[in-house]
Amino acid sequence: MQSLPTEEPPARRRVTPSRVVIVLILLGIAGLWGYALTRQPQRPPDQIDDVNFATRAEEICASTTTARDALPQAFQTEDPAERARVVEDSNAALAAMLNELRAIVPAAERDHRMLSEWLDDWDTYLGDRTNYVGRLRDEGDTRIYVAEKDGRQITVAIDRFAEVNDMASCRTPKDIS
Predict the structure, then answer these.
(1) Which of 34, 48, 111, 153 has a Cα-to-Cα distance from 78 of 20 to 30 A?
(2) Residue 6: pLDDT above 70?
């Protein structure tokens, strides 16, 4: 009697450490993508709460930018004395802008604190520009020196705050450099 060949049961896949590692890596990647695609975007820490201030500030800064655009660009002015006069006129417009902005700073503590610091940074930058005017008159052709904040030019902090709060016209002017 001849026996029928018996089918052997299929070989069972073995769990190996490398397979476990690969599965864990794939699950980790899937989890990270799931988190990245479903989480709520974080609000920048220096974004103010009062959108009315940002809207009004943008209007004030845009008006100042328009007035300043009528002036020659300081970096295109060859004569140091003439350049000093141009920067001085621009500084007067910026000082008036800062006064208008200070008048509308909200009283809410968080916004007030952040906006006061931002306006103080602007004052520092305006002081740098004023020193530049004096040096142009005393020394002739010279460069502007800008104060630092957190290891960078203070203009970086001013511009970042303006960008985060949708006040593009409130960025520092590029009329000197």
Answers:
(1) 153
(2) no
